[in-house]
Amino acid sequence: MSYVSMLTLLGENGSLKEGDSFKLTAAIKEDRIYSKGGVSINFLEDRPEKEPSRNILFHFNPRPSNTIILNSCLDFKWQDEVMIDGNDLDDMLLKNPFDLKIKVLSVNDGENAYEIESEFEVYLNHVFLTTFRSPFPITATTFIGFSPCIRICMPCKSVC
Description:
CATH topology: Jelly Rolls
Largest sheet: 7 strands, antiparallel
Number of strands: 12
CATH architecture: Sandwich
Mean pLDDT: 77
Helix content: under 10%
Strand content: over 45%
Order of helices and strands: EEHEEEEEHEEEEE
Shape: globular
CATH class: Mainly Beta
Structural class: mainly beta
Number of helices: 2
Number of domains: 1
């Protein structure tokens, strides 16, 4: 099994589109999730070079004590976060590799970049967590970056 620190979603059609699903399998080094901010998987519109990406289309952030934070960041400003709590989240994320899947439901194409938004379902280990609304088109994702203590394997884009 091979691991990477960043992967691209550029494929045969250039990116995700409405109706697509994207799934990846990840593993977290248990001792790292207990740090203050937890760990994160970030769906990005471009590859960050030396500076952090100014726009994070989707931020998946497992934290200690059975919590996951979902958010987006626009021009370095975090949007309204969605907090998901559950008694078994730490077990789902730490004991074995886990599957994170998003299914793109809709993309609203506004007249300028800041009027475009998307809505997608988020699943953890095939269990529906929530429907997330982003001020960005998740379909603009070209790279996924993640904390160094997360190992990604088996990325898969499919049409449902």
